[in-house]
Amino acid sequence: MENFDTVSLSFCGGTHNHKNCVTTALDEAEQLCISRGVRLTDARKRVLELVWDSHNPIGAYDVLSKLSQESGKTAPPTVYRALDFLLEQGLIHRIESLNAFVGCSHPKEEHSGLFLICKDCGCAAEVHDAVIDKTILNKTDALGFKAEQRVLEVRGLCPDCVA
Ligand SMILES: [Zn+2]
Ligand SMILES: [Zn+2]
Ligand SMILES: [Zn+2]
If you count Cβ atoms within 10 Å of the first and of the last residue's Cβ in the chain, which end, N or C, has fewer? Predict the structure, then answer.
């Protein structure tokens, strides 16, 4: 597995072209779903796009209200089912402490999500580290524990908010 251990956290401050993030994420999602033979329906795709609206984790309720605003009243199960699908496919991660979702920037590889979450501006930067990944897998395997969700959350201040 490739090691992505250095990730620029500058995106928290919104100084990058976020459209690129969204386009890349949607393209990757489409390709992945095709290669896995699962359907990225319009509703699922739109929910993914809404989650990718920013790098700040978004709650299911907010996704629902955005969707209802643009396409009329939407049934909550539509959103929950879409979010479940996206989670299953590894296209998004769930941030338990915030009860919210954030897009995965490298869904092609199975990995643990390590998130640096800024308590000030709310951004969540995903850090990729194959060593941490392997350590977690080794530990869980050794204990005979079947890991399902592997998301680590580190809370603090992003570089923009520290400054
Ligand atoms: Zn972005
Ligand atoms: Zn991820
Ligand atoms: Zn911040």
Answer: C
